[in-house]
Structures are given as C-alpha cells and as structure tokens.
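As a warm-up, study this chain.
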Amino acid sequence: MSDAQLREVIAARGIPATGIRDFFDLADALLADDAVQRALVRLQRGTLAVLAVAVELPSPTLDDIAGRLHELGGTPTTAADVADRARTLHELLLVTLDGDRVTTFDPVTERLRAWPSEGLPGAAELAAQTAPSAFLNASDSDTRFVDRLAAERAFAAVSSIAELVTEVSREPARQLSRGGLGQPDTKRLAQAMSVELEAVAPLVSIAERAELVALERGHWLETPGGDDWLHEGTPKRWASLATAWQAALSTEVRSILAGRPGVSWGDGLRAYATWLYPAGGTWMEERVNAFARDAELIGVTAHQTVGTAGAAVLAGDIDAAVAMMAELLPAEVGQVYLQHDLSIVSPGPLSPAVDARLRSLADIESRELASTYRVTNASVNRALAAGGNAQSILEFLRGISLTGVPQPLEYLIVESASRYGRVRVGPLRTGQAQSYVWSDDPAMLGTIAVDQSLTPLALVSADGRLTSRHPADVVFWALSDAKYPVAAEDGEGEILHLRRHQLARPVVAEPADPAAALVEKLRAGDGGESEAGHAWLARQLDVAIRGKQTVIVSIAMPGGVVVDYLLEPASVGGGRFRARDRRADIERTLPLSSVLSITPAP
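Now compare it with the structure written out below.
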C-alpha cells in the first residue's frame, strides 16, 4: 500500500498510534475485535450485506455474492454494485479483493457471526429487509405553514445570536476547563438572548461554527467576522448560519438526506437512519439528533419538516435560500419613536446600521419584533467615550425619529455632554501604579475614593489624585459602569476614545495528522521486503513462544534440500532462533535466513 492509502485506512478505521511499533502491530490493531466492530458500525446496510454473504460463502466471487443477495432479498443485485461495495471493504482492510474473488479475515468473520446473538442483523436480514416507507411530502398548505414557522425561527435565531455576539463583545464569557460555560455566564447570556438556559450552548455552537465568536485564552469573544455580521441585514445574517450548518453536515447524514429535500422527516428520518446504518446505534443517533436540533433552531426545518428555503440549503443553493427567506422575514425599518420617558421604541426589526448606532448610546430593554431601548447618563457617556458629541448624537436621533426629539431626552444628552470629562483617567508608570484618576472637583474625587462598588480597583490617594495598580482602560470602564462622567486621556491630557472589547481572531491551526506520523514511523523502521520477511518469521515464532505452540518449520539445507522440523520455539533474536526438536528430543539453534515457512503443527 502507498503512504496515502495507509494514512486513509488508519484514519478511517480510527486506529490509535499508541503501542504500534511495526506493521505487525498495525495488523493486530486493525483486526482487534473492537476495531473491527467500530468499522462495521460505520458501514451502510448494502455494504454490510455484501460482507455478511462473503463470510457465509467459501471464497466467493463477486457473481456468487450477487446471486446469493438476489436469493435472500428477492431483488436483482448487479455484480457492478457488489464490486463497488467490495472495493470499499477492501480499502478498509476488512476483506481482500483479488480480481473478482473476495476473502474475509478470520476476526471479521468471527465478529459478524456473533452479531445475531447481540441483536444485530445477519446476512438474510441485511439483504431482505426493505427501507422504511418514504418520507411524506408536505401538502401546499402545510408547506406554507412550515415556511412561516421556519422564518419565525430563523428570525429568532439570528436575533438571539446577534445578542450573543453583542454581549460577549461587552463582557467575554468564560469557558470552564472541563468544557461548557459557567452557570453565571450561561444565565447572563440567556437573559441577553431572551432564551431558555438550555438553548444557550447550542446557539453558542452555531455562532462558533459560523465564526462569529471564538475561544481565546479560555473566554468566548466576538470575532472580526462577528463584528461585520452585526452590520448585515437579517437575510444575510441567516445565510451565514445556514451555510455553516450545511458545510458541517457529516458524510453519513449527507448520505441519508441526498435527494430528500422538501419532505416531512418526523420520526421517519431516525427510522431511515437506523435502517441504513443497522449497527450505528448511539453513534448514528447522536449525529442525526445534533443535525436535526440545529436545523430546527435556525429555521431550515420547522416541526421536523423541511421548508422551501431549507430545501434550497440542503441542495447547496444558498442564494436561492436567501431569496426565499427574505420574502418571509419581517421587513426592516429605519425609524423609531422617541418617548418623553427617555425610551425608544422601534415599530419593527431595525436595520443593522440603525440598531448598532442606537446600541452605542442607549441600553436595550426588550428585543422583539418591536424592540425597546432606553437612554441614560451612562449610555450617553458611552457614546461620548466612543467619540460622539451632543450635536452628532442629536442629529442622528432627529434623522431616525418619527416623533422628533422630546425635550427631556435632549436635556439629558446636552447635560451629560457638558459633564463629560469631569473625571479623567490616564496611564501611569510610577512604582506599582498603572493608572490615575483625577478631577477638578475635589468632592467628586472624594466620592469615587469611598465608592464601595469601586473597591476592586484598590484606589489610593496620592498628590491630589487617585492611583490604581490596574490598567487605565479597566479603571475607565469601571467608573463608566458606575455612572461617573469619566473620560480617558493620554499622557499629554488629550481625550482618547476607547473601544471596550477586544476581538478574537479564530486561529485555523493545521490539525495534527497522527495517521501520517504513524506511517512515517513505520516506514522508517521498515527494512524492505527482505527484512519484512524475516520480521514476519520472527513474529510467528514469537507468537508460538507465547502460546507454547508446536510448529512445523521448513528449513532450506545446503544443496537445495528442504527439511521439515517439528519444533517448540523457545527464543528468537540476532537473526537466529532456538527451539526444542520434538521428534529428536534435542535443542536446535537455526538461522532465520534458512527458514522457508512456519505452519502450526496439526
């Protein structure tokens, strides 16, 4: 076999590199009972039927197998189809295909013959049992209902993931060392996303798959792609989720879904998966469940029925899927109602550009089709810290308002802007202190010094200002969250505009290929065909020694004479082996180079 063929079979069979020193160890690992079962679990019914019949018949040809399958199943089976499946088995090293003749390995035969006692199908059942009833086609009225429901779920998923991306950009979520989010972060994200606690992990997984969030140093952060995604329209946002979902489908699930878009799956999907992979068990069930769960979450399906847009996704036509979904999603709006109580109400889903700008100067209170925002001193300070001013904020609000700018709201913005910067935070490199806080209002500075909410900053009075061992940006955002009119400045006293969060950059690391490393190691220790022959003889002798077996060893003597000895091997090494001659009752030491063959004694 070539290196590429070896790598493929080691990877496909899931053979670990641990404990494999040479090709004989690899052969043992491939034929181990659990390794054979793992391989059989991943085979489709038709391929298993070919293997099961090959086990039953003595050294069968492809025509023999096709004929026997016809007898068992009652339907014609071509030799070409049998040949394709036999080649698959040959490539997986479960059988040997020599011309048109199939030979199975003893451990594979033993494993398959044990199946009926384990509740798994034998050859007759594999060949004769027909597929479950075809999936039901949805009626036109059902399809319209499914499309509407799928659009609702697509909108909900996009909205929830948008809140997820926004929330982790504000405050990263910590990943536990054992996996999964901690309970406090899960609750925080669930509240921000307006979902149940158990929905958080699947939605984080969907967002990660679409590269909107990523793990960095044990925390979930927004990615540059996530930042760009937030500025896309809802149909394009959904397209990113659907494309990533479709690209992540496993080969096994793809084979089940091939040619079956636009139908009602229901329990039929699982029944068909069980039929197609009769030994799949929990392995197949987990894949189907994960696929079906995410399909429901993002609106590819609704009530386990494929929508029109979902069918296009399954067919790989994402552009058509987006066009269909765009017709079903609620229209985006670009204007809002500004209220005297400092709230902002949108009459529908806001366009991403307006929503992003509003979030920079207001806190979101509820997220539905009509979202509600609220302007506060702290939120205006946040907008000012990002580089805004009273004039630019008011101009933006006038441009999107259907009701003008109420006087209380205008007063709050102007007053917050006039107070902005009364407290300054800057970097400091003196001793252990990393930052300072100062204000021309001593009373304000005194209030900050005794504020219990700021205790973690460990503020210390020094020379008319406060110092902290924490960096300036940490101190700045702590004061901002505490609703102080704080501004950041550099060492020259110039005001800086800070971005609160950092972006994670997904690192696509080249995955380690243990199969390639194993093949390289095996090739390095392989001395070629001659040495491999000696190694094979030594291996047989070693097995006989461990089992205290008697073997017949054929030795090439000078002059071309071949002599058979009945021996009980005792040790092997240095190109020679020592054994007890059972016929002559003497001990012999013989060179491996003279051994022609070793066969078990009858």
